[in-house]
């Protein structure tokens, strides 16, 4: 189980520790559910990208989890931000990330978003016919062209982004027309963008997308200054998953890229996914139809990935981490949905009310996809390092939920 947890995770005197802090101490101080990020793990992942792609601009896929403190931490390491909305841009700017390290995406950018991207000096990715005109009108100067290379990644259909029916980017003929129009308008078309999907377990489709992008450039008799190869490298959520390392995934792409072309990489999940652990307090434990349920104080409102993508997680009892499993238990959330099940079959010591459940690899696309379903406020988030903890997102309250109501 430790291989799924952050680099600083340890079992000490029968209890899980993260960043030198006991899980029970974190839960008692900040409450549960609680999303805990390990600073060392994030910095190590940045180092891995730097080593695999020297000189490349790495921009964090902000949609994995938009948080000013995490963005500042990444900015300290020279990482920029990949944003796709006005809100994500605001997070990046609040973190002090300069425009030259911001890439602005979006398949339906508003005039307001293009104006904000222009003001920030961001690199804008053209994604649809006529967007060059809208970008030029907004004052955008630097652009990439997002190519839809017709590549179907081996991942969940909902997170494939480069197949022929994708809502993202333009097929080669349409992309050629948009590049021509952008040049007519005086935009600096600096290069191409391709991205095949998320939670990727192999590099093959990304290499194929790169080959098709280079073929497209050859067709236009053009040597792009920049190639943005997207992100998408997955993280392990359970011990059965086998995934390439950063070097194994990025290395072949770097080797195939032409000399003299600047690369941009857009990792999100692979920067912060393993760094995150969610702590829950167990409440009711009961048997139903031969299944023993252990209910937690969160669920699909803070991690809807099992419902959206069939994601399979593992767990351990953080306060009894030294005990051997005694059975298989179904981890249910507290929401009024039969489908609110976080883990179908978790091997655990017999859970008791008050136990602390730790779920690894929850740093990406969990709270970012969260909601306040059933009027459940979203959890707090902390960053841990060297025995110190820092609150980086306050726990919501019921008063926060009522703040927008009008009677």
Brief characterization of the structure:
The chain has 407 residues and is of the alpha/beta class. The chain has helices spanning 23-30, 39-52, 68-76, 86-94, 111-120, 131-138, 172-184, 204-219, 246-256, 269-272, 305-309, 398-402; strands at residues 10-12, 15-18, 21-22, 34-38, 57-61, 80-83, 102-104, 123-126, 142-146, 188-193, 226-228, 262-265, 276-288, 291-296, 316-317, 327-332, 341-348, 356-359, 380-385, 388-393. The chain folds into two domains: 2-31 and 275-402, Lyase, Ornithine Decarboxylase, Chain A, domain 1; 39-271, Alpha-Beta Barrel (TIM Barrel).
Features:
407 residues; nine-stranded mixed beta sheet; Lyase, Ornithine Decarboxylase, Chain A, domain 1; 2 domains; 20 strands; 28% helix; eight-stranded parallel barrel
Note down, in words, how this protein is organized:
The chain is α/β, with parallel strands linked by helices and 407 residues long. The chain contains twelve helices and 20 strands. Strands 4, 13, 14, 15, 16, 17, 18, 19 and 20 form a nine-stranded mixed sheet that branches. Strands 5-6-7-8-9-10-11-12 form an eight-stranded parallel β-barrel, surrounded by six helices. Strands 1-2-3 form a three-stranded antiparallel sheet. The longest helix is centred in the middle third of the chain and has 16 residues, at 204-219. The protein is elongated and about 70 Å long. It starts with 9 loop residues before the first strand and ends in a 5-residue tail after the last helix. The model has no long low-confidence stretch (mean pLDDT 94).
